Amino acid sequence: MTVKLATGQGSRPMWSQISDILTDRIVRGEYPVGCIMPGELAVMEEFGVSRTTARQAMERLVSLGYVARMRGKGTVVLEQQDKIETTMQSSFGGILERHNDFERRVVSVEMEVPPKEVAYYFDVLPKTKLVCLRRETPFNGHTSACFVTYLSGRLPFTDKTDFSGSLYAKLEALGKPVNAVIEKIKAVTLDECEPLGLDCEESAALLRRVRMGRHDDEPIEYTYSYYLGRDYELTINLTSG
Question: What dotted CATH number matches 14-77?
Fold first, then answer.
């Protein structure tokens, strides 16, 4: 029986929907550690998609570290031992940043080929250029945070767009407010960060946050944020309902 995917206007890319379904099966143990995942032909048949779409979905699982391709075996489910992941779900307004009143000043706006995971997120070919907005936050006389944001090619933005002020206010004005977000936050070392101009010593505590923002089911932004740990505090307000 073919699994039906959402195909209406604004629906997420089919490869992304398939990847999420397969990831859920792995997390729930339907595909246990060490088992061989269905091949591309099986995915094509189950979801009624092209080989390209099936391959994109499987490559996404590889990039996330859930599976690995092994010669002579196929695509094998990996044990998740290298990280502890905590997922918190709350209302969209429940994630707050102290210091969020400090203005993010624009460093550059360019048309740029994004990293592989960003291209997957926006469902574009690997060498497609997207608007890349770089900003930084000054705090107490130094650069406290840096932000690299890739924006959907469906938005009417170019490298000539004036991005001063609030990015989210601009998206609101376009009728594309970000109303759904997935975020991943981890501690990193200086050599794991891009040379973004953070004013810190090599041993400084740093945080990296990846934000994937959507308007309903439409991908809008993919942002890498880097913070000096001494200046940054995240408050998560979880509410029921």
Answer: 1.10.10.10
